[in-house]
Amino acid sequence: MIVTLAVIAGGLPAVAIEQPDDFRSLSVRVPEPVRSELDAALRAWHADYADPAGAHAYLRTAWLRAASVGERAWLNAEFDAMLAFADSRGWLDEAKEHVRAHVDTSG
After folding, report:
1. Whole-number Å distance between alpha carbons of 30 and 20
2. CA 72, 75, 42, 95 torsion: positive or negative?
3. Stated pTM of the model
4. Which of 55, 60, 84, 100 qualifies as a FRET site for 40, CA 20 to 30 Å off?
5. Count of structural domains within the chain
6. How far is residue 53's CA from residue 66's CA, in Å, rounded to a whole number?
7. How many Cβ atoms from other residues are within 10 Å of residue 36's Cβ?
8. Listed residue (22, 34, 43, 11) closest to 103, CA to CA
9. Segment 31-81, tens digit of pLDDT
């Protein structure tokens, strides 16, 4: 699953999800010209926030589930497995409300 920021003229970048049913990986793809707007864009879209260095984004698990699984309830088990794996690696916060994702500026 890839969370992307798309450049929108005159406003904050839009946040969207590519490959919403690929639960084997999670990253945030940000074009270099809008990397400095990552934190503001995530907050504006209620996806959540980026670390000050911009190396990682912290995504609300509820937002991510709604945006990727949505009405496709059969995908909940795969989403939960992705979060369990993230938790085993220390990528979920203690409350299980945010998952850490790597920020990729190469694409």
Report:
1. 17
2. positive
3. 0.85
4. 84
5. 1
6. 27
7. 10
8. 34
9. 877 788 888 888 888 889 888 888 899 999 999 999 888 888 888 899 999
Domain, as residue range, for 87? 2-104
- CA–CA separation, 14 and 70 (whole Å): 19
Most distant CA pair in the chain, distance: 41
Q: How far is CA 102 from CA 29, 59, 75, 76, 105, in A?
A: 9, 11, 23, 22, 10
User: Going by C-beta distance under 8 Å and a sequence separation of 6 or more, which residues neighbour residue 91?
Assistant: 99, 100, 101
Burial class (CB in 10 A: 0-12, 13-18, 19+), 15: buried
**3-class SS letters over 45-104:** CCCEEECCCCCEEEEEHHHHHHHHCCCCHHHHHHHHHHHHHHHHCCCECCCCCEEEEEEE
